[in-house]
Design goal:
By secondary structure, this protein is an alpha/beta fold. It has a single domain (3-45, 54-61, 99-205), classed as Rossmann fold. It has eight helices and ten strands. The strands form two sheets. It has a six-stranded parallel β-sheet with strand order 1-10-7-4-2-3. Strands 8-5-6-9 form a four-stranded mixed β-sheet, with helices on both faces. The protein binds iron/sulfur cluster. The site of iron/sulfur cluster has 14 residues, from helix 7 and helix 8.
Length: 211
Amino acid sequence: MTPKQKYNEITANRVIQAFKKRNIEGYYCADKAEALKKALEIIPEGSSVTWGGSQSIAEIGLCDSLKNGKYELYDRAQAKDSAQLDEIYRKAFSCNFYISSSNAVTLDGKLVNIDGIGNRVSAIIFGPDNVLLIVGINKVCDDEADALKRVKNKAAVMNAYRLNLNTPCSKTGSCVDCLSDECICSAIVVTRRASRPGRIKVIIVGEELGY
Ligand code: SF4
């Protein structure tokens, strides 16, 4: 094991220990392939599944595996218009599994997420029976202040680039706390705990994933 691998594993296990007192179930997987295997173990065949916009879940190959498997999928990419997209967003609340990443995770086990419409943070808070988050080790932050800095100055800015948005940060490269029409930071949510034990499951991957 390289020093980096050792550091990643120990860091992830610190977070997983902290999750326990917050009713969040945590797992550590050293790489993408292991994370994909674990995710598919967690989601039983036949489950109804949907996901939020996330590079991380695509990067481990989870979307493709689910599409090729025996699941009842609600794929936002298949929506033909905004009405269908809204329908899929609402359907998430009654699904067995909602899959996403988390924009940041703190060493003491909090999840920090930023959202433009709010469908993703809503589903993390309430609705789907299970929430499965795939989180690269690059998203582990020292504390809540560090996580808030990360979600606004890195995750949101990178997503603004990805979505080709006309926001101030897409020009300056850092957050100026805008209220522009295309702002993707309508809601910032800190999940301190899961009220139902085990409803939120987090796989921390010992590799960089997403933004
Ligand atoms: S500048 Fe606006 S869109 Fe960009 S990160 Fe800040 S609040 Fe979000």
